[in-house]
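My current task is to audit a protein record that another person submitted. Thanks in advance; the entry in question is below:
***
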Amino acid sequence: MFPLRMFAIQFLCYACLATSAAAQQITREITFELTYQNRDLVWLGDPASPAALVYPKPGAQPVATDIQVTTRRENHQSPARQYHRDARIVLDNNARQVRAFTSQREQLVGTIDDQGRFAPNTFYHDNRALLPTWPDDVSQLRYDANENTLYRDVAVTGPVITVSLDFLPLQLSDANGNAVAGTFSLNYVPSQATKTKSPAMVSLVLQCENSTNTLAQATVPNTFRREDVQLGSYDNQAGTYFQESNYRVGADLPEDAMPSVTFTFPGNFTPSANGDGEKLIVTAPAPRADQPKPASSKIKIDGNFDDWRNIVGIDDPRGDLVPYLEYVPDVDLLEFKVAHDDEHIYLYARVAGQVGRTHPDGGRGYFYAYMDVDQNAGTGFLPTRDDECYFGVNIGDDCEVQFEFVNNSFRKSFYGFCGLGGDQHVLNQTLTLGKSQYGRLDANGVERAHYKSEYTYREGAPQITEDLKLGTSDTIHLAVSLDGSEVEIASKFSGFLKDATGRPIVGPGQTIDLAAGMECDSKLFPGKTQWAADNTVPIRGYRMSR
């Protein structure tokens, strides 16, 4: 069982110990997203022109739907804690290590004792210029186990504003504060070409055991400006993005090619859904929900993401960043989910930009699903800045499901094994869990005894691979949403290989911890030179029941 984690994007890095209803103002906005095939739209002007207008043809149906709820909290009570988000705390050999993000790689700066006190090391004292947000007097720092973060007490004048994003499934309660169970769906009624010219409507519906509740709805605007819609949709057949020229009349496209356009516009909550402080309340009677359970669901890797909408996952803040990395929205993770059946593990991720979008001349981008298969941070690889692009994640990374984009096109899917040994152990399938390092060679060019190996699984056998090398795994399949913001991946359990005893590294019946990570170079963005990366917090204790 794993919990749904909610995170706030903090414009100021402060959080309150306690607030009253009067001290905190909360507002919510719901945004609908509809994607249409370009052939179902009418363009007034050149699609590449910022002055162009576009509208759906009467009766047109969207090919994808989605929603986003934005919650804005304005706290007028003086906060009491300043959290140090520019570090991560990892458990290594039963010791809590504090690893600070600095401009000179991620650095170990101290440990936390059993009393929650921070004990700095010599690096902390000798490199104060690299730690400008950290206090000279470390006795101010305390450890918050729930946040897994250090903090210090402060007093700040003025309101603190935080914004968080929520996607389906939403967390709902009844009037008594009990969680509500149900199935979410987005219903669309197309416009009609009649004298009344009835507009298209879209609504968010919660289907409970004995009731149907419309929680939010919106009228689809008659016309959209070019600046308010997104072109450049993803083509899963070609493994790349459509260009603006593909949207012009007479564009030379294959018969089955379907460039799309995504419209985003605000909606309104109905009286069936009211905000009560931190909770979104369903006013109509509805069954109570059990605690979230690991998702065991029928997922199709087809680019249609409706089958993920009711699977519980974790949220990750928009815009989180560390000093040694650039910010690129295409790797800014917002959401991560996991499901399984008896043959596959399924992975889902959402980003603020577009998955795999890279520069057409040498651009590179990667996805990682980090898996701690023994729930032991002391085995595997602890992702850090060893190769100058990791964001950092707080689990022992024993193995990975990965994919690579090069030159704005899909290149390959592959695996990583981060245990004892190296390439030969992977090829022989004599794997042993243990602590390893990222690269095959250390800083002096000497081959390590234990390092991360990357391989494809093809025709029933592993083959060692590396960055930019061709050849993809036939046990991993993925699809990207039409607007590029979501990706779904399926990996057969057979692709994870076996250990020296013949036991699969990952398979049904296991309980694992896992997190998602993405990274890319920043060549697509003028003026940026460093790599960009992000990762989610881990989903812990995911049970792959049979």
